Amino acid sequence: MLAEFAGTFVLVFGGCGAAVLAAATTTTDGTEVGIGYLGVALAFGLTVFVMAWAVGPLSGGHFNPAVTVGLATAGRFAWRKAPAYVVTQVVAAVVAAAVLYAVASDRPGFDAVTSGFATNGYGDRSPAGYGVAAAIIIEVLLTAVFLVVILGATSDRAPKGLGPVAIGLALTLIHLISIPVTNTSVNPARSIGPALFAGQGAVEQLWLFVLAPLAGAVIAGVLYSRVLDPVRATRA
User: What pairs with residue 32 in β-bridges?
Assistant: First the structure.
């Protein structure tokens, strides 16, 4: 549980921290030094990449309720352990968001509600104004893709030691595609943490960023275990 807490904390603090603190910022002398969408996408991918290597051997490196549910659906993780993992991930995300809020609030003029505080959203809360249908499609689809990558990269027949590389790059790609649509969730814990500090509007839209990633994870778990599993395919 400590490993899952640490990994989820770094994921949320690192990824959302990049979005809040560094995505579009100006130094005191007026210089624009923001890292933009590309930098934020890399930040999310790198956090998973480094923490999967750092603490993945202890807990499996889920850092995401959707990953836990997807692995359990595919038969790679015991359902009886899932509630403890999910609770730990959500608590870690909230703590990370609280620390990020404390840091960001120390800058004059910062407001978590008006800035969005790296929350996910659709409609007027979408970075590019995408609606609820686009948000559901993108979150279900990309979470399913993410889980298929995880299941494939961690299978017995995958190259040993390269799982974190594939998973980190997959999360980077997912963010590059979907930041304009929803600010990218594919992780209910990552969505819950910042939303609690960003006002009622962010909280009211949380349902989508809990249900859609979980649905995508279940779809991927079923698809991989029934169709794509290389061991099952060989036996057939």
Answer: 26
Between 52 and 234, whose confidence is greater?
A: 52
Query: HEC string of 204-225?
Result: HCHHHHHHHHHHHHHHHHHHHH
User: Under a CB-based contact definition with an 8 Å cutoff, are residues 22 and 71 in contact?
Assistant: no
* Strand-pair partners of 26: 32
Least confident of 80-89, 105-114, 175-184: 105-114
Q: Using one digit for the tens of pLDDT, what is the confidence trace for 32-72?
A: 778 899 999 999 999 999 999 999 999 999 999 999 999 99
Residue 230 dihedral angles phi and psi, to the nearest 5°: -65, -30
Q: How many CB atoms lie within 10 A of CB 160?
A: 6
* Burial (0-12, 13-18, 19+ Cβ within 10 Å), 205: buried
Residue 120's closest CA among 203, 40, 216? Answer: 203
Residues 6+ apart with CB under 8 A from 41: 172, 173, 175, 176, 179
Tell me what the mean pLDDT of segment 212-226 comes to.
Answer: 96
